[in-house]
Amino acid sequence: MIKVQVRVTLLALLLPLLLNATPILKDDLLRPEASKLIEQMADELFSKTGIHGYVVATNENFPERFNLVAYSKKYEVNTSKPFVMLIFAPNAIITKKSGQKGRVGLIPSSQELVALYDKSDVMDATIDVIAAKDKNSIEDKHNIGVVQGFSELADQIASSKNVELTTTLPNETRIIIGILQVIVISGAILVFWMFIFRPLYMRIKNGKQE
Q1: Angle at which helices 119-131 and 138-160 pack, to 10 degrees?
Q2: How far apart (Å, rounded) are the C-alpha atoms in residues 63 and 154?
Q3: Which of 48, 51, 53, 160 is within CB 3.0–4.6 Å of 116 for a Cys-Cys bond?
Q4: Model confidence over 158-183: pLDDT tens digits?
Q5: H-run or E-run covering 209
Q6: Model confidence, pTM
Q7: Do 37 and 152 contact (CB within 8 A), yes or no?
Q8: Residue 54 forms beta bridges with which residues?
Q9: What is the phi/psi pair of residue 170, to 5°?
Q10: 96: DSSP letter
């Protein structure tokens, strides 16, 4: 009788852990390779920060202004707090008039977590890949977008906690933007030197020589 009670107690303790073992709460479009990458990043994120990262990748046709926060509640039973949930819904209608589709949502378990990441950056990392015109299929773009978006989210949370993740992916868009910013700043300095500072310097120099 005692052994049975012990087993029941252990099962009750382990069951929530088993239920929360996967960071992917809904998967309508992810390939095994993408799922594996997300799982690795989520595991490392939790081990180093204590924060869970979850993904909901759904093909559901949400109407315009559909409430993603309310929608996320149905998955909370399979989550552990604290967490941030990334919802990717490529078939969600943005506006009926434009006919545009595709929404990304970030749902934190508490408002304190909002300060750990930049929502716009994470959404851009997810959407930029999909918006790019290249030879990748729409399915490939969806997978790449979710993986890159989750990677950006995990990286930002880790950075806020002063830790570094080794399983996340480099955000190519962010790197390219950084390079362009350096080029623009360098160009501005060069223009300033050529047209403003150098002529002024030469006048002062020539004036002293006279």
Answers
A1: 160
A2: 29
A3: 160
A4: 999 999 999 998 755 454 444 434 54
A5: helix 198-209
A6: 0.73
A7: no
A8: 85
A9: -70, 135
A10: T
Q: Kindly state the DSSP code that residue 193 receives in the 8-state scheme.
A: I
Angle between helix 32-49 and helix 138-160 axes, rounded to 10 deg: 10
Rounded Cα distance between 142 and 148, Å, is 10
Token digits of residue 171 = 């955000």
Instruction: Give all strands of the β-sheet with 52-57 in edge-to-edge order.
Output: 24-27, 52-57, 83-93, 101-108
> What six digits make up the tokens of 113?
């977590």
> CA-to-CA distance for 148 and 51, rounded, in angstroms?
18
Alpha helices in 50-137 (DSSP H): 68-72, 119-131
Residue 67 is which amino acid?
Answer: N
At 75-98, the pLDDT tens digits run 999 999 999 999 999 999 988 888
The label of the residue with tokens 């729409």 reads 138
Unique residue bearing structure tokens 């409430």 = 67
Instruction: Give the confidence band of 205 by pLDDT, cuts at 50, 70, 90.
Output: low
Look at residue 51 in the predicted model and tell me its pLDDT. Answer: 97
Q: What is the per-residue DSSP string for 21-55? A: S-SEEEESS--HHHHHHHHHHHHHHHHHHS-EEEE
Among 169, 166, 151, 145, smallest CA distance to 30 is for 145
Give the angle 115-78-18 at the CA atoms, nearest 5°: 115
For residues 146 and 108, give the distance between their C-alpha atoms in angstroms, rounded to a whole number: 17
